[in-house]
Amino acid sequence: MNDNQQSLAKKHNRDAWNRMVVGKKRFTKPAKDEDLHQPLDTVDAIGWLGGDIAGKQVLCLAAGGGRQSAIYAATGAQVTVVDISPAMLELDREVAAERGLDIRVVETSMDDLAMFPNEAFDIVIHPVSTCYLPSITKVFSEVARVTQPQGLYISQHKQPTSLQTDMTRSANGYELIEPYYRTGPLPAVNGTRLREDGTMEFLHRWEDIIGGICRSGFVIEDLVEPFHADPKAPRSSFGDRCCYTAPYVRIKARRTSMKITDAPANKIVIPQ
Question: Which residues contact 41 (CB under 8 A, 6 or more apart)?
Fold first, then answer.
């Protein structure tokens, strides 16, 4: 991966998310009244945040759209939201104005947080988005830099096996059709809840995700696979496919003073 590929993916996905806002697609709908009534219950039913984050400095990373930022601001946290799409961030500005919430909005890529000083945030919340960059090494190093010692990094990612798997169920179930060791963007898929129309997505291996988080100076404290399986769902639907492969992983990591600067020396030949 070179800088040109990284830049190309950023521009492509910035434009794609701008179009999705215009089309009022999923993930472009701001928080509703019921989301804000008990905001911590909405975003932290599992209890990873400890029950009270009022006054905490929270970074919602690659999280524009008027939902994440509004819910965390409603908890009393001091919220900054970062996104590469100006249209998504406009939704955050609108919901902040409508509901009287104090939300700082910054347009930048998730791997470029140069405008923030070291140790600026107590908590970093990172919804599914690492799939939109060909390289995520700098994402994790930047998150580590801006997170306070003992601060939390809670992120969600698309599982690599799910991105390898066909969208249509065959006689044998759902088959792997994409190689695990691959470079370049995944083939485009439209009309499915598992992939966002018009975006450029990349498969990241477990060593890229979990290994990358650990090597950047975090210790993983917990990991869950959000449950979406529905045995009664129609064949080849989202719920049916989730019976065979989990689509997402959610990771709780804590910042430590340790940082491993070198990746393991795997001698892997990746087919072009």
Answer: none
SS3 of 112-128: the string is: CCCCCCCCCEEEEEECC
Q: Are 258 and 236 in contact (CB under 8 A)?
A: no
Q: Is the dihedral of CA 82, 111, 128, 253 positive or negative?
A: negative
Integer distance in angstroms from the first to the last C-alpha of the chain? 11
Domain boundaries, the chain: 3-158+202-230+248-255
With a pLDDT cut of 70, the percent of the chain lying above it is 93
Distance, CA of 248 to CA of 268 (rounded, Å): 25
Q: Which two tokens stand for residue 15?
A: 């434009």
pLDDT averaged over every residue in the chain: 93
Instruction: Give the DSSP letter of residue 222.
Output: E
Q: 3-158+202-230+248-255 falls under which CATH superfamily?
A: Vaccinia Virus protein VP39 (3.40.50.150)
Pairing relationship of beta strands 57-61 and 121-126 according to DSSP bridges = parallel
Distances (CA, A) of 157 to 89, 222, 267: 21, 14, 25
Length of the chain: 272
